[in-house]
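Holo prediction. Input below; ligand is flavin-adenine dinucleotide.
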Amino acid sequence: MDDFNYHEPRTLAEAAVVLHAARNGVYIAGGMSLIPALKHRRVRPSDLIDLRLIDGLAGIRREADTLVIGAMTKHADVAGLDIVRNSIPDLARLVGEMADPSVRNRATLGGSIAHADPASDYPPALLALEAIIVTDTRRIAAAEFFTGPFTTGLRKGEIITAVNFPIPDNAAYVKFANVASRYAIVGVFVARRAGKVCVAVTGAKPCVFRFGEMERALENSFTPDAIKAIVMSAQGLTADIHGTPEYRAHLIGVMAQRAVASAAAKPRPA
Ligand SMILES: Cc1cc2nc3c(=O)[nH]c(=O)nc-3n(C[C@H](O)[C@H](O)[C@H](O)COP(=O)(O)OP(=O)(O)OC[C@H]3O[C@@H](n4cnc5c(N)ncnc54)[C@H](O)[C@@H]3O)c2cc1C
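Structure of the complex:
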């Protein structure tokens, strides 16, 4: 690991000033992805700006039909708190199945989505639930946020402060996980709200994506049978040590049908 300056700003404004003044500044949240990257010198910042002490970035609240989760909220809290379990149960379950307890007690929502790993679990939830990412300067629709592998629509120095999740009528996430890391080889999040259905897929392409053909079929009939005959083309899907494009295409169909069956059986809690 190279030497760097370390900062602990107390406000968003202070953090942004330090970032812009630095030659090559980087924010750090839970450090679960950033610290390994520093150790391997894949990232070589001049300044590390820790967001931990900034007030108001962690916490979860419900505002009418929206669940607002602060960017510095740890995975363990999203997985364990009743406010999430009672509003969007599969969001709590999705986060509870990420990684392991030591990671879940440090890693954060903001770090997870800013990192934008193409196999990570939060992005399909944000995309399918049509979440809004709130930063220190603006609001970004999830559909505009994830732009490529490890790439987002964030501007230089922009800080994610929270994510607003509209509460769906039905939702479920099913993933076929890598047994070692628990990252998704393929994961499918299905959400239905006011008759509109969103199906978002992670792990299968360089960036999370929506599967429009399935969405249209499910808006006619919200049943696994409605999408049984829909086959994802293997073209453009990821090939790696975990699976071929054809294998992933097959998994998308299977995971999506399971997610629909699970979502249909779990209407929105009263
Ligand atoms: C062993 C292991 C297993 C894992 N398994 C899974 C899994 O199964 N599923 C899964 O989805 N994830 C998994 N993860 C990833 C983990 O859940 C975290 O999402 C990830 O490590 C980043 O979160 P963090 O808070 O530690 O961010 P950091 O590592 O601190 O930061 C990551 C990036 O985000 C930027 N950043 C952080 N916060 C903000 C902010 N508020 N605004 C703007 N930029 C910001 C940082 O500058 C950095 O570029 C795993 C990680 C590990 C180490």
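The chain has two domains: 5-50, 60-264. That is the main takeaway for now.
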